[in-house]
Design brief:
single chain; about 280 residues; alpha/beta; TIM Barrel; 8-stranded parallel sheet; two-stranded antiparallel ribbon; 10 strands; about 35% helix; disordered N terminus
Length: about 280
């Protein structure tokens, strides 16, 4: 029997970011996020050698990677060519591996609309890091993108997070006020998932007991000296990822990127296994 195509309806259901990321965590058995921070001054051949360098990193590490995290600063530092390199790289990335663009943008709402369009529509990344300190309204342009996510800066990995983020306002820490953004977005049923950046170097028991079960992007492992034991014996179920950048791309260069990625993935899994 012929099908009347004019009556057929196709419903396209986009997987939520947290589900896509969790699926990837289960597939790899790893929470490793591979940071992509190209440094032309440390790459033989300079800027024009960067695309091949990044291609090697991605090709050799993707099987162990729960996510990739390109850092905008390193690409912007190369000027227009750097943005071209990033755009080329994003077009070549494995589709099953979520891409978290580390941009840390913050501006008034009208400007944020164009940042959101740039990252989610033009470059089609899965998630982006944002600075929340201009308030909820400045994040709203990012909150209704189906299948996407934002990570708001809550407790960053640098010592200066103690200056503001780990200060108290009344009986609550500033990072708890940031967390209210994730709570509000969830209550409102926004299409975009909201997670938080919590640096491993500052993820003390006092911090973690106040962090709810939203997805965490956890920098600070490797060159920054973060301690994986901070994440042991937790009760978290969210798809948290732990980033390693220089520990893979700029250290122990006698080893392959694949070997280093597997070593870090194994270390992370031993301390904070995927459930």
């Amino acid at each position: 029997m012929a099908i009347d195509k004019s009556l057929a309806k196709v419903t396209i259901c986009t997987m939520r970011y947290s589900d896509k990321l969790q699926k990837r965590l289960v597939e790899t058995g790893s929470r490793l996020c591979v940071g992509l921070d190209p440094r032309p001054d440390q790459t033989a051949g300079g800027i024009e050698a960067v695309p091949e360098f990044l291609k090697r990193v991605v090709n050799e590490t993707w099987e162990h990677a729960a996510a990739f995290k390109p850092n905008m600063a390193y690409f912007e530092a190369m000027g227009i060519r750097g943005l071209e390199i990033l755009e080329e790289l994003l077009g070549q990335m494995p589709k099953e591996v979520p891409i978290i663009l580390d941009a840390k943008r913050s501006d008034i709402g009208e400007t944020q609309k164009y940042y959101a369009k740039s990252y989610f529509e033009n470059w089609n990344v899965d998630a982006v890091t944002l600075n929340p300190f201009l308030g909820y309204d400045t994040l709203e342009p990012f909150l209704d993108w189906e299948g996407k996510a934002i990570y708001v800066l809550a407790v960053t990995s640098n010592p200066g997070s103690a200056d503001i983020m780990r200060q108290k306002v009344g009986n609550r820490y500033v990072f708890e006020l940031v967390q209210d953004i994730a709570v509000r977005a969830k209550k409102e049923g926004r299409k975009t998932d909201v997670g938080m950046v919590v640096g491993l170097t500052n993820a003390s028991a006092e911090v973690l007991e106040r962090v709810q079960d939203f997805p965490l992007l956890i920098p600070g492992l490797g060159a920054q000296g973060g301690d994986l034991s901070n994440m042991v014996n937790g009760s978290r179920t969210a798809p948290d990822t732990i980033n390693v950048s220089r520990g893979i791309t700029a250290k122990e260069m006698d080893k392959s990127f694949s070997k280093k990625a597997k070593e870090w993935a194994d270390k992370i899994s031993a301390a904070y296994p995927v459930s």
